[in-house]
Amino acid sequence: MKDIKIICDSLSDIPNELIEKYDIEVVPLTVILNEKEYKDGVDISNDEFYKTLREENVYPKTSQATYAQFKEVFEKYVNQGKRVLYIAGSSVATGTYQSAVMAKNDTDGEIYTYDSQAFSYVIGILVVEAARMASEGYDIDEIMKAIEELRDKTYVLFSVDTLEYLQKGGRISSTKAAIGSILNIKPILDIKNGLVAPVCQVRGKKNVISKMIELVKDNCGENLQDQTICIGYSDDFKERERLTEAVKAEFNPKDILYFQIGSCVGSHAGPGLTGIVCIKNK
């Protein structure tokens, strides 16, 4: 059925070419930078955002997408006779999902919501798959079942370059951040129960990629040749290329997809963020 409209929020970090290919509607969250509000990915580009963080030493904040935003979007597509599926960023970490549920309850029409319990392109993988299936005529129940299964198989790791932003956002204590900075500790993180969670830590940035590769092998297996591995980056293109080289050498995947980590996730992790998303094969 091609009357299904797939909607997500800007936490999903989907590359523009895929948004355009599948006609995905993205509801932006708000980023507050230097006391000025920007719609994520609309009023400020990712490159501009990270450049500001590097040059001005500022600590941005984020604000959830609102009831009014979702009400407008839901009504727009319901009035076109479409059924709506909204795939959300983690409800544990942001009130955006709750805004959508409230708007859904106040809107006449067939609207479905799915809490990904995730961030960044972990959401994006689900959204793109849902949009692909919708374009091929699958029904809503089939799509919901497929993305639930895909979510369970998706594996993510990422590493931050500085602990300052995690500390400012209350994710770690100031003592841990200070000690980590002195010892040049780089944490490797994943997502558990809808929140960022530590996996391990390494000394020095040069050891991050080898540890990530080791963890991917342990959790996903070594035979990933049949899949597209997704590599996330903020503004560190050299680290992106190093990770690309390691992924090609160790896994020889069918393809590599790059996604730039947007300003909402970047607000809490800072510049220099690198990540990998793949599917568990074991």
TrEMBL record:
Keyword Ribosomal protein in record: no
Keywords, ordered alphabetically: Lipid-binding
Pfam families on file: DegV (PF02645)
Molecular functions (GO terms): lipid binding
Function: May bind long-chain fatty acids, such as palmitate, and may play a role in lipid transport or fatty acid metabolism.
Xref: PANTHER family: DEGV DOMAIN-CONTAINING PROTEIN DR_1986-RELATED, DEGV DOMAIN-CONTAINING PROTEIN YITS
Name recorded for this polypeptide: DegV domain-containing protein TTE1491
Organism whose genome encodes this protein: Romboutsia hominis
